[in-house]
Amino acid sequence: MDQGTGIRIEGLWKRYGEGGAAMDALKGVDMTVAPGEVVGLIGPSGSGKTTLLKCLGAVIEPTRGRMTLGGEVIYDAGWKIKDLRTLRRDRIGFIFQAPYLIPFLSVTDNVALLPMLAGQPNDQARERALELLQAMDVSHRAQAEPSSLSGGEQQRVAIARALANRPPVILADEPTAPLDSERALTVMRILHDMASQYQTAIIVVTHDEKIIPTFKRIYRIRDGQTFEEAGEGRDISNGQEPSKRVDQPA
Amino acid sequence: MISLAGRDILHSWSKFVLTGLGLGLLIGATLTMAGVYRGMVDDAEVLLQNSGADLWVVQKDTLGPYAEPSSLPDDLYRGLLGLPGVAQAANVTYLTMQVRKGDTDVRAMVVGFKPGQPGAPGFLTSGRQITRSHFEAVADQMTRFKVGDRIRIRRQDYTVVGITRRMVSSGGDPMVFIPLKDAQEAQFLKDNDAILASRARNAANPAFNRPGVPGLLDAVNASQTSNHSVNAVLVRVAEGHDPVAVAQTIRRWKHLQAYDRKEMEDILIAKLIATAAKQIGMFLAILTLVSAAIVAFIIYTLTLGKIREIAVLKLIGTQNRTIASMILQQALGLGVIGFLVGKIAATLWAPAFPKYVLLLPGDAARGFVAMMVVCALASTVAIRAALKVDPATAIGG
Predict the structure, then answer these.
(1) Helix crossing, A151-163 with A107-117: angle to 10°?
(2) What's the gap in Å between the CA of B378 and the closest CA on chain A?
(3) Are B90 and B243 in contact (CB under 8 A)?
(4) Do B315 and A105 make contact, defined as CB atoms within 8 angstroms?
(5) Of A117, B2, B126, B188, whose CB has the highest number of CB atoms within 10 Å?
(6) Which of helix, strand or coil describes residue A69?
(7) Complex ipTM value
(8) 3.40.50.300, 3.90.1170.50, 3.40.50.450, 3.40.228.10: which CATH number matches A7-230?
(9) Per residue in B156-182, pLDDT tens?
(10) Chain A contact for B227 (CB, 8 A cutoff)
């Protein structure tokens, strides 16, 4: 899939309410995330992080501005792409603070669900899921119920699910919040690996001081406006080879 | 595409099975109510079938002999036998009363009949038909009497000589057949005190007790003690004659009421059990509403328990129809489990009912379709709730 330009946001506004009660949650946000890049989005509560994430996730509509995901314009000055559900399914991967795996599906089927929803045959979707689970090092729990997995394992399955349809964009909302330092860094390492392997543009919304140093670039958001700054870009490769790219032959 | 509903049911099978069990017992009660109605209709049809009659001749302007009291002179049948198209005509009496056996008693319809004539019990499961003129009885097995039992009807004891089955009144009471003369006595004969009082009254009446007319008082007393009434005459129509035409002839020339089979069915089903049928219909409607409410509540609760998962499913691009289909399938699945449990329960407990419960496959099929419709309608509440879930709630904030 052509990963295009990753994420590009220009002059994005979001206003809640009308008249005197109107409140601008986003005030002309500009942001660019290149394919293969992982950037941090940091800000205090009420700064507009979640609103920005919801706009990027095509679950709420911006008031004005322009958004491009994976080379496709999804919003431009009032015009928006019509089939937002399909857009979310095919072009955006979501990782949440909690894994939110579907409890009545096996680990494999949790990951395979997206390709199945996109119309892939079940066996192909499961094959893809197993490859991703292998890459996330949780393939040994492929048939298990999500509730039997540890928090770290569940989060890795959630990452595998986000990657299942090879989206050009992944939005991660506090993905390391419930994890200890070691597991949080493991998750970040996986995200960095996946970004570079699949040329996926990843935005990680976080408060987590443990992982902030891993970003090369950070967007701080304050009062609905973003401010770009350089991050430490600390190496967290742990001296290990990055995970095998799963959509290439071995 | 995998079945999300199927996986959820398998994952929470104990919840679904237990809920289905509860719902099933309710469905079982619903099917049984329908079976009770069918049993009443069947009892009525069997009653007519077993009487062996083509026409029921009763007192004019009555719906007798099953729906209203009817009284006819017991020599009337001779006149009917002379009419064209009448092959057989026989007196019968019907009286619902308590029949005692030792210290216990049974509510039964006592039928007076002439052996070999219409109105006799059609077949026996044990014992023999009545052969003596007096004090023998054939009882339906629902009375729990056995051959050789001594039973008491009014002032007389009878020996049970035969047992029959499915011979019940339209009210579901088992029948006890006794000779016509005995039945007439049982139905119309006064008790001793009443006879004494009547004789004293006649003796004090100068019109009946004339000094110059010896024997008049005895004749009056005798006429008041004996009884020559029956409830109906059952007529069998000769081959080649139309029962409707014969009934018209009887109505016209004998000034009696004559009902053919269809008219008698209408009386029994449309009039006699109409109120009971409406009662059962109300119960069925209420049980259906309760079932719908239960299914709606359960599916709604189950759906609310999955709101976060539904938000995630919507966020990752699951179509509304997939989510609605999941909830609908779960509701239908619950209905299927409930129906199976209900059908089995109804089949198991139906024989224990005191009245005949007839579970027809057609009713079961209709019940199944109705249950599926109820489940589908009940699931709409949960589907609405699920479709209203904002996918943004999965992101939080």
Answers:
(1) 20
(2) 23
(3) no
(4) no
(5) A117
(6) strand
(7) 0.80
(8) 3.40.50.300
(9) 999 999 999 889 888 889 999 999 999
(10) no
